Amino acid sequence: MLMVEPMPHELAAGHQGRIRWVNGCLDDRDLLRLITHELVARGFDPIGKSRLAQLALMSEMDISEYARKHSMLGVVPVATMDGGTAIYGPGGTNRDSKRPGMSCSINSVAFCCHECIKDDFQKVGYSWYRRFHHVLGAQWCVAHDCKLLMVDARRPFDSPPQRWLQLNKLVPIKTVVDVLPQAGFLRRYIHISFALLERGSPFILDAIRGALARQAFEIGLRPTLYGRRPTLLSDHLSAQTEDAWLRAHIANWETKKPFEYFSKIDGVLVQGKKPWGSHGYVMAMAALYDTAEDAMQYVSLADSIFKVVSRSRSTEYWQNEVERRWVSCQEFADSIAKKLNVNGMRVAEALLYLGLPNMHSPEPSGTWAAVIRFLYGEKIATACIVEKVERGEVRALLRICCGNVLRTISTLRKEFVRRFDRAQTGTRRLVYFDP
Ligand SMILES: [Zn+2]
Fold first, then answer.
1. Are strands 431-433 and 416-418 parallel, antiparallel or unpaired?
2. CB distance 326 to 352 below 8 Å
3. Residue 70 Cα, ligand 1 centroid: separation in angstroms?
4. φ, ψ (nearest 5 deg) of residue 421
5. Biggest alpha carbon distance in the chain?
6. What does the pLDDT profile of the chain (435 residues) look like in tens digits?
7. How many angstroms does the Cα of residue 116 sit away from the middle of ligand 1?
8. 22: number of CA atoms within 13 Å, CB side?
9. Partners of residue 417 on adjacent β-strands
10. How far, in whole angstroms, is CA 410 from its chain's centroid?
11. Closest by alpha carbon to 185, among 126, 144, 239?
12. Is there a contact between 112 and 128 (Cβ–Cβ < 8 Å)?
């Protein structure tokens, strides 16, 4: 068998097609025989392995590394429940085989770029299919800022792109946006997709959801099913790019009404909702952050913290111990770290993950004092009168306040003491939790 190394960013389906082409296989059974024979000759058992795993073995690569460099698994799935890469494993297959480039099956669609073909041909004498040309909704070659071409053939990967060019079988794809804008949502969407392809492992579902929901709130959106803020992620998204592009890539987008919850997009932020298609997460990342780099950085950071916290000790440990120390350590992370005998950075990460604010300032605002009273069992109206704050401010704080903070305050409310009384001291009352 003639060895065929995968080219940089070559799509697995295209790599398989070149193996077939270079070795002159007559049909799919011939290709299967060739792969099986080669793997057995190298001492592997090809039975039960996905085609992706077989191609990785043929390329003398680890399956995860092959998947990271030559599959679309970085964008499907973007997130899994545990952030695991089991789908990359030996038996792993790509379940979403209908999407471009997602399957090694022959009956798929293939895209290429005229300029890339010319460049490849000049450099190495042949061209190959790039996975960057197969991201859903990315209808342009970013390297050459031109529209992609589609192979007009039933089995496009059977032949390399230059052959289809010679046969005049490359047709411009129908796009709703002819030129990729230099900046803005679409370019962010594409750059985030590329970064995800390179990343190599999915995000933990709760981590990406939490990061996106926090960012949505930060920029004034409503990240929940119900609430007073009118603007949802789906409204924000609709303002960022052509409606035709959204209709083309989001099922039933034409039914979206202004300020009405649209589950396929807004559900990305809502806990308890099942994850929708992966590109909903990519669209949310592109819509919520100013740059693709920011999106990747903040979501990756949230994911790392989630993993560090959950792996170093049990979640219960951090929730119980750190929360308890949090209320007693007004010197913040370093004091907590000393008491727990762990690294200060680890505590800072845990606090960030748990959503607990800095307790360095011992004097809470009147609004905070009212929230604490409310959690202590008083009615909001009474708490507001006592603390001389507006009800709306308290409600707003309750809405934005992380559930962990509220739960911690509630859990420890018996330890809540009044050190001073406003009536007696004439100053704002100091409230804190007594260690
Ligand atoms: Zn190109």
1. antiparallel
2. no
3. 17
4. -110, 135
5. 94
6. 888 999 999 999 999 999 999 999 988 899 999 999 999 999 988 888 888 888 999 999 988 888 888 988 877 788 887 666 555 444 444 444 444 455 555 557 899 999 999 999 999 999 999 999 998 888 899 999 999 999 999 889 989 999 999 999 999 988 778 888 889 999 999 999 999 988 877 888 888 988 899 899 889 999 888 888 899 999 999 999 999 999 999 989 999 999 999 988 999 998 665 656 778 999 999 999 999 999 998 888 888 777 766 655 665 665 566 656 655 554 556 676 777 666 666 666 666 555 565 455 445 567 777 777 776 667 788 888 888 888 888 777 776 665 656 666 655 544 444 433 444 444 433 333 332
7. 4
8. 16
9. 432
10. 32
11. 239
12. no
Distance 56 CA to ligand 1 centre (A): 26
Q: What values do phi and psi take at 290, rounded to 5?
A: -75, -35
265 alpha carbon – ligand 1 mean position (Å): 31
Enter the tokens of residue 175.
């796009």
> How would you classify the pairing of strands 203-204 and 79-80?
parallel
Could you tell me the two tokens for 59?
């390329």
The answer to whether the beta carbons of residues 60 and 39 sit under 8 Å apart is: no
> Separation of 184 CA from ligand 1 center, angstroms?
20
Distance 194 CA to ligand 1 centre (A): 14
Q: Separation of 231 CA from ligand 1 center, angstroms? A: 38
CA of 161 to the centre of ligand 1 (A): 12
How far apart, in whole angstroms, are the C-alpha atoms of residue 330 and residue 345? 17
Ligand 1 centre from 300 Cα, in Å?
A: 29
How far, in Å, CA of 370 to CA of 114, rounded? Answer: 65
